[in-house]
Design goal:
single chain, mainly alpha, Rna Polymerase Sigma Factor, Chain: A, Arc Repressor Mutant, subunit A, 2 domains, 68% helix, rod-shaped
Length: 170
């Protein structure tokens, strides 16, 4: 049986070895604690050698084996990130963004083709009014009025307001 006094006398050497091995005081103290816990739990397996010299070697063997096991576990796990450096602990819900995007796409589909084309060229593609007018083959004033009407109808559709149907005057 291992006496507490014998174990306590070995702690400074175990800590020095663990700190040199791990270069991290907290992890080294955890390793020493795990080593002592295992030694106390399996103290019945220790066989004293003549002169009482075997306890130190047995404890260092336990520590070495624990260190190897922990190193293997660490390589198979993702790296630890300190809580302070991890950023936000939760991500905002994305469902509402997808719903809003779906509503926008549906509202765009309900726009007349001429307004949708101008909105896509100017709003999505970032074209200037002049470039959009050249692409569509219409005057720049037509682009500006279609864009204004298209934005109004889109705003109304997204706000849930009904828009009156277009009347074509011939």
């Amino acid at each position: 049986m291992i006496s507490r006094a014998d174990l306590l006398s070995q702690i400074p050497g175990l800590r020095r070895y663990a700190r040199a091995l791990l270069r991290d005081a907290d992890r080294a103290d955890d390793l020493v604690q795990d080593c002592l816990e295992r030694a106390l739990g399996r103290g019945h397996l220790w066989q004293p050698r003549p002169g009482g010299k075997g306890l130190r070697g047995w404890l260092f063997t336990i520590m070495h084996n624990l260190h190897i096991d922990q190193a293997r576990r660490r390589t198979s796990m993702p790296p630890e990130v300190p809580l302070e450096a991890s950023g936000p602990l939760a991500e905002p819900a994305r469902q509402t963004d997808r719903i809003a995007l779906g509503e926008l796409a549906a509202a765009m589909d309900r726009l007349p083709d001429d307004q949708r084309q101008v909105l896509l060229l100017v709003g999505l593609e970032g074209m200037s009014y002049r470039d959009a007018a050249d692409v569509l083959g219409v005057p720049i004033g037509t682009v500006m009025s279609r864009l204004a009407r298209g934005r109004d109808r889109l705003r109304q559709a997204l706000a849930g307001e009904s828009t009156p149907p277009l009347r074509r005057i011939k």
